[in-house]
What we know:
Elements lengths: L10 E7 L2 E6 L9 H16 L6 E6 L4 E3 L4 H8 L11 H19 L9 E5 L2 E3 L1 H7 L3 E5 L3 E3 L13 H8 L3 H10 L3 E2 H7 L4 E3 L3 H16 L3 H16 L4 H15 L8 H8 L3 H11 L16
Parallel strand pairs: 2-3, 3-5, 4-6, 5-7, 6-8, 7-10
Antiparallel strand pairs: 1-2, 8-9
Keywords: Fatty acid metabolism, Isomerase, Lipid metabolism
GO cellular component, one term: mitochondrion
GO molecular function: delta(3,5)-delta(2,4)-dienoyl-CoA isomerase activity
Amino acid sequence: MAAAGLSSKWITVSEPVPHVLHIELARKPVNAFSNEYWRAYGALFQRLATEGRDVRVAVVSSGIAKMFTAGIDFAAAGDIAQGGLSDVEALDGARASLSFHADIEEYQRAIGSPQRCSFPVIVAVHGLVLGLGVDIVSACDIRYAAETAQFSIKEVDIGLAADVGSLAFLPKVVGNHSMLHEFAYSTKLFSAADALQMGLVSRVVPGNRDEVVRAALELATLIATKSPVAVSGTKRILNHSRDHRRVVAENLEYTAAWNAAALRTQVLEPASAVLALIGLKDIPESLLAAREKRPTKFAPLRKPPAKL
Length: 308
């Protein structure tokens, strides 16, 4: 039900287990991203962020057997490099630059859209992950790689600094900045083992596409059993800490403000009457389920749309 109406020309969305979406990218032959494709990717996550579907985790993978993505389609790269997403031919240099700036920001918002979702987004990669693929991976919350995966921060080879997300996210998420600089300057391919050593991925899965997707879905299924209020709050606070990493006190203040609202649940007793009235609030439900040794039942974060 949560996946209803979300699939599009090159993106297939399914719900393999309740509250978990599997988003498969499949633009043959190599999953290259045209302007239409990356806009569809951003629009999908925008819908997931705003429509109130009861999604608690999403897994992003490739439907192409030997490749996650070859990156940006060459035609789209040419358009972007020339400021061609908008009609700038008749504009002077300053106005053309402003228009071009808006185009790049649109591109960044689309690829960074998983960050704006209230739920975790897990990416499961295999095969080649080139250029824009590293941007996509960097904007996801949890990153798994099959042992076959090979990565390249490719943009220098087409004459530009990566401007969609890699160079913003990677210094925040990796632990080996020397390796990051080496691969960003040289565009050399690096392995799943390198990505694990650097901190880009948290797990390398033996096998190929099927194995890494299975591992990601297993993790997603586990996370989906947890309180969506707690998981959503955890994502927000972790991202705030990442983006304000030098100011611990600021993050603690943010955490206090967030939890002051998120922890306003009802008392546990009398359990059955209270839970019936308040719609299974997360803390009482977590405690009661543990006591009764049964699965938890959590309400959606938002009221679902009228029709799916």
